[in-house]
């Protein structure tokens, strides 16, 4: 039998894995971690004294030599551990091969031209193209890969002018949330002189005359404070093309409430500026205001003057505005507000609340295209503007459909469809006829027919039925021996739906089971489901995740020694909380960029936005609940204890969830962990919370994670099969 290079690599790796496995079983050794100093910091919260011995690790790594030295020392330990894993190189080669396929986004139509992104395969950043027809020649407009040698400056936002002659675009350096906005001339492909700084959590909205755009920004931070200080005092401005930022016109601010967020968008007809004033948290509850752009020097008019509900602007007929909202509809509805008669008693329901959650709405082709979540899967319905039902959109299977963007007069729109074992496909949709036509399909080097995806429902601790997707190769034996990766999030009204991922595909290809639990705190079943996992009920989220792991063990998909858990950001908190509450249930844990100190998160950058979901240590009742599950503090309270193998991941320029969370958690875990299980931290450099991370860095990180699981879960991966 002739072995291919891939097969030979896999065979050698498997033999090496056997030797390593034997060594691990016979000679377990505890790693030598860096000596991490402890401070004497003690805070008092509502009469309770709380020690914070690793407070010094909150300091910015760019400014603190001590923190920088600690990061370097920790990375040396982690790198040495990962490089000792024989299978790692073969894993990296295989994921590189899988990743190396052409990726194209759904096109976006503007003034008869089509704009789309393409990645040839392994480019660090996606490249922007334009074409006059769907099958015509494409012209490259913007290649972020040329901005830096290492690909660490990324495109962070893009808005095409109404005449498609100009593009406003944001850039982000090293994954930071701070963006610099510029303007590109489509005809020449060259940037103009415009440059807008200190923009964060904002897009741009062009005026109908294409003479400028509205955007939001924060004041310039104090020197050296950009990556840690709270983001407050957001303001809405108008930028006139060609003018310096110093001359931008202030349009709206709320000096009475500097923590509120402010955003603005111009209606499609160019007649109104719609202003959304957020309550400063991720609940997305807003106040609404508008300004008549047809009347010079018109005043801003308040339309909704409280933060009781969420409103998403969809379009307008003159002074009648359409919104998706949860007003009197926890699963959302579409309403019309006539600005001439704006009292709530005059609000008109256009499309009533349904049994399923109304997730997103687009007004395209003079019809509302409504995407619903049916047990965390996409279902799409089309309605006339008066609310009359037209048809269901026939999707190619059970999965996730996204897109349907465009303008009201457009005669076509586009959407993508994917699932766990179904690579992304792009469809052209005709709102008038209902015809869907496949125009592009990703060609990944694997056979989707070898895999299966199922959805089950399991009971949580309090009896609540929770859905979970389970994906794996066909024909696996339910004998409790399968390495299994359980993923979750459970927060901020965010829904986890079936989608294609090369890294997850590789996990299944290696012989692993992949599971996603749709925990409370997410948006899969509307506001009630979301609120059931927030503040004083946050423990429900952890109970749901723990119950998911117990189900996988009970049904013999896996066993505790073969079960790994993974999550990022709020999902990092999830993993941190569950591994400290049930260390016996897991064979490994991968918490990424997690919120680990629940008593101080609101003191840094965007942390104040999360209070609506988490609560705050400033409240006595909420402090007590936060202190119970805060992963960092649980480690300190528990003292010496055995924990599962853990690899924490974060990045030095993460200004969303500052890396001090992960630094402190890792230090406490290493100090209080007993036994030989490795507990590591992998700290990426020149990277942020995740957005815009170069492909090369992503591949390295995934290879490290899978190699860590191969070793700690003790299994022989099938590589390249």
How would you describe this protein?
The chain is of the alpha+beta class. The chain has 12 helices and 41 strands. An 8-stranded mixed β-sheet has the order 32-33-35-34-36-37-39-41, with helices on both faces. Strands 3, 4, 5, 6 and 7 form a 5-stranded antiparallel β-sheet that branches. A 4-stranded antiparallel β-sheet has the order 8-9-10-11, with no helix packed on it. α3 (88-99) crosses α12 (695-712). The radius of gyration is 26 Å and the shape is globular. The chain starts with a helix and ends in a 9-residue tail after the last helix.
Helix and strand composition category: alpha+beta
Low-confidence stretches: 1-27
User: How many helices?
Assistant: 12
Task: Quote the beta fraction.
Answer: 25-35%
What composes the largest sheet? Answer: 8 strands, mixed
Give a count of the beta strands, DSSP E runs of length 2 or more: 41
The end-to-end span amounts to 16 Å
Overall 3D shape: globular
Helical content, roughly? 10-25%
Q: Largest beta sheet: what is the strand line-up?
A: 32-33-35-34-36-37-39-41
The residue-averaged pLDDT reads 93
Radius of gyration: 26 Å
Protein name: prolyl oligopeptidase
Signal peptide: 1-25
Domain Peptidase S9 prolyl oligopeptidase catalytic: 499-714
Keywords: Hydrolase, Protease, Serine protease, Signal
């Amino acid at each position: 039998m002739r072995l291919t290079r891939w097969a030979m690599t896999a065979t050698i790796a498997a033999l090496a894995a056997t030797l390593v496995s034997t060594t691990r079983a016979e000679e377990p050794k505890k790693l030598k971690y860096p000596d991490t100093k402890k401070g004497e910091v003690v805070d008092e919260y509502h009469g309770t004294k709380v020690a914070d011995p690793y407070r010094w690790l909150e300091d910015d790594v760019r400014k603190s030599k001590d923190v920088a030295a600690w990061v370097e020392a920790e990375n040396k330990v982690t790198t040495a551990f990962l490089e000792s894993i024989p299978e790692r190189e073969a894993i990296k080669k295989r994921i590189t091969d899988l990743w190396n396929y052409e990726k194209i986004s759904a096109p976006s139509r503007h003034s008869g031209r089509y704009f789309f992104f393409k990645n040839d395969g392994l480019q660090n950043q996606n490249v922007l193209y334009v074409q006059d027809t769907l099958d015509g020649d494409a012209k490259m407009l913007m290649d972020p890969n040329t901005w830096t040698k290492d690909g660490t400056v990324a495109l962070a936002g893009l808005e095409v002018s109404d005449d498609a002659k100009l593009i406003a675009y944001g850039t982000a350096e090293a994954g930071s949330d701070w963006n610099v906005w510029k303007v590109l001339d489509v005809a020449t492909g060259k940037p103009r002189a415009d440059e807008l700084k200190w923009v964060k959590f904002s897009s741009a909205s062009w005026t109908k005359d294409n003479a400028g755009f509205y955007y939001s920004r924060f004041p310039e931070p104090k020197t050296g404070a950009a990556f840690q200080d709270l983001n407050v005092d957001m303001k809405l401005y108008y930028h006139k093309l060609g003018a310096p930022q110093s001359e931008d016109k202030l349009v709206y601010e709320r000096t009475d409430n500097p923590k509120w967020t402010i955003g603005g968008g111009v209606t499609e007809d160019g007649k109104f500026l719609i202003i959304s004033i957020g309550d400063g948290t991720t609940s997305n509850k807003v106040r609404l205001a508008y300004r008549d752009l047809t009347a010079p020097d018109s005043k801003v008019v308040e339309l909704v003057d409280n933060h009781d509900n969420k409103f998403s602007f969809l379009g307008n007929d003159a002074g009648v505005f359409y919104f998706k909202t949860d007003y009197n509809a926890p699963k959302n509805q579409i309403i019309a507000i006539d600005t001439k008669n704006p009292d709530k008693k005059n609000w008109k329901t256009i499309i009533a609340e349904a049994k399923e959650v109304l997730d997103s709405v687009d007004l395209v082709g003079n019809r509302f295209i409504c995407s619903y979540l049916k047990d965390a899967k996409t279902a799409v319905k089309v309605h006339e503007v008066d609310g009359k039902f037209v048809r269901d959109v026939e999707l190619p299977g059970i999965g996730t459909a996204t897109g349907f963007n465009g303008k009201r007069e457009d005669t076509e729109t586009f959407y993508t469809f994917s699932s766990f074992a179904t690579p992304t496909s792009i469809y052209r949709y005709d709102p008038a006829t209902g015809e869907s036509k496949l125009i592009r399909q990703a060609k990944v080097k694997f056979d989707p027919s070898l895999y299966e995806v199922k959805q089950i429902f399991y009971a949580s601790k309090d009896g609540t039925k929770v859905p979970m997707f389970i994906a794996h190769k066909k024909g696996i034996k339910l004998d409790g021996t399968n390495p299994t990766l359980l993923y979750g999030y459970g927060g901020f009204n965010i829904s986890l739906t079936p989608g294609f991922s090369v890294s997850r595909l590789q996990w299944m290809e290696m012989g692993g089971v992949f599971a996603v639990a749709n925990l409370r705190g997410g948006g899969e079943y509307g506001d009630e489901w979301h609120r059931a996992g927030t503040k004083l009920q946050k423990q429900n989220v952890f109970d749901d995740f723990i119950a998911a792991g117990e189900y996988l063990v009970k049904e013999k998909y896996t066993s505790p020694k073969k079960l790994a858990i993974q999550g990022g950001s709020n999902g990092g908190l999830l993993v941190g909380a569950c591994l400290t509450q049930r260390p016996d249930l897991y064979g490994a844990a991968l918490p990424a960029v997690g919120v680990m100190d629940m008593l101080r998160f609101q003191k840094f950058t965007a942390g104040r936005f999360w209070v609506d979901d988490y609560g705050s240590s400033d409240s006595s009742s909420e402090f007590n609940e936060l202190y119970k599950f805060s992963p960092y503090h649980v480690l300190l309270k528990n003292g010496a204890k055995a924990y599962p193998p853990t690899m924490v991941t974060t990045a030095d320029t993460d200004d969303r969830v500052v890396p001090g969370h992960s630094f402190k958690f890792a230090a406490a875990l290493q100090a209080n962990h007993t036994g030989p299980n490795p507990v590591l931290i992998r700290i990426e450099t020149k990277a942020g919370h995740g957005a815009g991370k170069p492909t090369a860095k992503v591949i390295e990180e995934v290879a490290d994670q899978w190699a860590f699981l191969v070793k700690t879960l003790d299994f022989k991966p099938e590589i390249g099969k």
